[in-house]
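Recall the central idea of this unit: under ordinary conditions, the amino acid sequence of a chain determines the structure it adopts. In this exercise we apply that idea directly, starting from the sequence alone.
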Amino acid sequence: MNKAIILLSGGLDSVVSLAKIVNTYNEILALTFDYGQKAFISEKKASEQISKFYDIRHKIIKLDWLGEISNSTLNTEENVPVLSSQSLNNKEITQKSAKSVWVPNRNGLFINIAACFADAKNYDDIIIGANKEEGETFKDNSKEFTEAVNNSLKHSVNGKINVKAPLIECTKEDIIKIGIELNVPFEYIHSCYYSNEKHCGKCESCQRLKRALKLNGRTDIINKIFE
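Accordingly, the structure predicted from this sequence is:
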């Protein structure tokens, strides 16, 4: 039986990754993490709706302690950085933004927790939404990170568990295009750093999503999910 675990935040990358692999596995378990992030309420709603849409199991993992030790603007009362669409091509600005929202070892931790489930319940693969565009500023979204984690897991689990990033060569523009082709329910996703009924449209995550939608000519989705 072919089984996978997906790290599902409810955002663009994880949702399109799910859509891309959903018919590849006999069983899929989605894990969503609550680490005290500002966006959790909306991420929870999005991940639940997406899991229901694709008819997969869904589990929320609470990590209160991670939020307590984190100095990220995702966890603290400090506002997350506001970026313009033009700033997305400015490496100095995006690196500063990435540093502000960085949660200590978040993706490494999430993958290792998923590996515990995979090791105990005989899942074959762990699916993550890492992609080329975010990999340029977030080192835990890079191909090198995925390769390093896979090498580590060879020594920390019984059997063979693979971490796979089906969008690792993709920009956000590419990801939207794939999502359109796969009929992803974009109205369910939540990629914003805040929990609101609609995306704020100002944080880096929102700006990247909005730009990708514009490049694909999907202003209808922008009008639906952004303030």
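The two ends are 44 Å apart (CA to CA).
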